[in-house]
Design goal:
four-stranded parallel sheet; single chain; alpha/beta; globular
Length: 261
């Protein structure tokens, strides 16, 4: 590639997310592949930390603002911030500006970062115009719409558009795909009985859909649903949508010790 062509490529900083980093690194590798295949240069800033959403949701605005400043400093020099998570991307894009007063220079910096922060699949479709990723996947899947991605960022049709172009894949919709799975971060810890009832209903809908694989775009939701499906003895495999779109769904499913386990 010529120097001119390289310089014209958008420089994308990948916000890996805590759960991807600690529990499912393959999602990060899949995100890198998808973004690079779409013609961008990908950088994974080593200085990145948690986006601060747990602190924000717990009312700890001081620490939430401290973490927001760290993320802003780390990512503001790139063309785009992209996260394989509607939850983290939604927090950065919609709530950072709430942490700073009018006239505070950090508020303006938060606004500028918010304007170029995206959830992975919506970035591919809405910003880069990707219509197919060239992936293959033999099986029937059902898709869960994670709350933050759907309600804060409008992620709904984009994953379905790309999944419809995956060779061999059949998408069957579950009942109420856009209803919460019961995770909600600290919600599942503070209100375990209510959270359990919600995920019970969600996993019943997943099972009734008759798909062999459950997909979503947020690791928190995926781990929550995978855990309840496992405890129910379900054979439904659970994967992040990026793994399927990148053709990297040949490893163990979420919560499985080996493929098919």
């Amino acid at each position: 590639m010529s120097a001119a062509a390289s310089a014209s490529r958008p420089k994308v900083a990948l916000f890996v997310t805590c759960l991807v980093d600690l529990f499912r690194p393959t999602v990060g590798f899949a995100a890198v592949k998808l973004i690079e295949d779409a013609g961008c240069e990908v950088v994974v800033p080593a200085a990145q930390t948690c986006c601060g959403q747990p602190a924000f949701n717990s009312g700890d605005r001081k620490d939430a603002a401290m973490l927001a400043k760290k993320v802003i400093e780390t990512f503001e020099g790139y063309d785009h911030l992209v996260a394989p998570s509607g939850s983290c991307a939604g927090h950065i894009a919609t709530h950072y500006v709430e942490l700073f007063d009018d006239g505070d220079p950090w508020k303006a910096r938060a606004e500028r970062l918010a304007a170029k922060s995206h959830e992975l699949v919506s970035f591919l479709v809405d910003v880069l115009g990707v219509t197919a990723t060239g992936a293959k996947f033999a099986g029937t899947v059902t898709y869960h719409d994670s709350c933050s991605g759907l309600r804060e960022l409008g992620v709904k049709d984009q994953p379905r558009k790309l999944l419809s172009a995956v060779d061999g894949l059949t998408l069957t919709e579950m009942k109420d795909p856009d209803v919460c799975c019961g995770f909600g971060g600290a919600f599942s810890v503070k209100y375990p009985d209510l959270s359990g009832a919600i995920v019970d209903k969600k996993t019943d809908n997943i099972t009734d859909a008759g798909a062999s694989t459950l997909l979503a775009g947020d690791m928190g939701c995926l781990m929550n649903m995978a855990g309840r499906l496992s405890r129910k003895g379900s054979k439904v495999e659970v994967r992040h949508v990026a793994e399927v779109l990148a053709g990297m769904a040949d490893g163990p499913a979420i919560g499985a010790t080996k493929k098919g386990a």
